[in-house]
Amino acid sequence: MLDIKQIRKNPAEFAERLALRGNEDALASLIELDATRRQLIVESDQLRHSKSETERGMRTADKSSAEFAQFRDSMRAVAQRIKDVSEQLKTVESDLGDMLLQIPNIPHDSVPPGSDESANVVIHLRGDKPEFDFEPKPHWDVAGDLGLLDFEAASKMSGARFAVYKGALARLERALISFMLDTHTDQYGYTEVLPPYLVHPRCMIGTGQFPKFAEDAYVLEKDDLVLIPTGEVPLTNLHRDEILEASALPVKYAAFTPCFRREAGAYGRDTRGLIRQHQFQKVELVQFVEPELSDKALESLTGHAESILDALGLHYRRVSLCAGDLGFTAQQTNDLEVWLPSQKTYREISSCSNFGDFQARRAAIRYRAVDAKKPQLVHTLNGSGLAVGRTVVAILENYQQADGTVVVPEVLRPYMGGLSQLGKN
């Protein structure tokens, strides 16, 4: 959430930054409503002062006099107006809060300009594209032909956009989760967390999924709980309404979680395969850092995610998202896109973002800086390290062989009981 005080001080700058995202008109109503709020506050203060003056007059007036009756009538009128203004102010403040929740973060100064993904900037490419002497198959055919992936069974149980992994493929997913968590905790100092997968709606508000993306969520209305769309939600909310000590920063968490999304706005896209499922799994990385260090933290977090792709020997690229392609809560994002031979294109496998104090303001996450008069908002960051299902897709496609088998990347073989190929006993 943006800071209304800062917007009030420099509305033109905020309007200009939001215009880069295509949100030119986001502030007009907000600024008008904020002005109304301040007018009501001034009026409320004046009315309370008037009430005090009237009370003072009543104490000295003769209770049987016309003067006292006049004071009494004035008191009733002022009291009623105070009540009316209080109700108006309550409504305006609620509307103002709701409006602020709908406004996206402002882009970082370093973010490339542009209105859509065509303006995204490729920062670098890593690894080599595989070469095939046969036509590479899509991952659903590779795994399906090996009897390791069953969409029909999943559809029978749950409908479209679900999958059943079997045998070595199920073990490959488990191996990837363990490898990713081991790497992030042992090499990069993240603390592993196993969080709840159901959270209160206020947790979704804290990280920016609600109210903007409420239609994509699976909500259990009877229990007032929501199935998490990403591990970012419980990990960030671990410190909601808390004040951290500066000496404890940075705080770095890694978690494996299943994720649940309706994909309400994605019908007709990626209808086959594992790319866009209602239930999928990720290893998520979240950091809480001091504001002046968040730029460096984004670079290091992105590097941590990249190291998994490097270790797996997958070809990928890092892309800096332009202002118009940023997610709602992000001020800066690096996407990692892995090469898929069957599609002859790159697909997102991790999105690493710096949110600045946007989430921290929504979730009231602060830290106590040395010599600071009062606690300050932390900066939060997160990224997938990686999306596990999409990593399975990349391995199936990039490591497929002419005989239909799939080579298991060497770093995963200890997690696979020494198995070197899917499809061979």
Explained architecture:
By secondary structure, the chain is α+β, with helices and mostly antiparallel strands. It is built from twelve helices and 18 strands. The chain has helices at residues 4-9, 11-19, 28-60, 66-102, 139-145, 151-158, 167-186, 201-207, 232-237, 294-312, 358-363, 388-398; strands at residues 121-126, 149-150, 164-165, 191-192, 198-199, 218-220, 225-227, 242-245, 251-260, 279-289, 316-320, 332-340, 345-354, 365-368, 376-377, 379-387, 406-407, 421-422. The protein has an eight-stranded mixed sheet with strand order 1-11-12-13-16-10-9-4. Strand 6 (218-220) and strand 7 (225-227) form a beta hairpin. It is elongated, with a radius of gyration of 27 Å. The two termini are 54 Å apart. The model has no long low-confidence stretch (mean pLDDT 94).
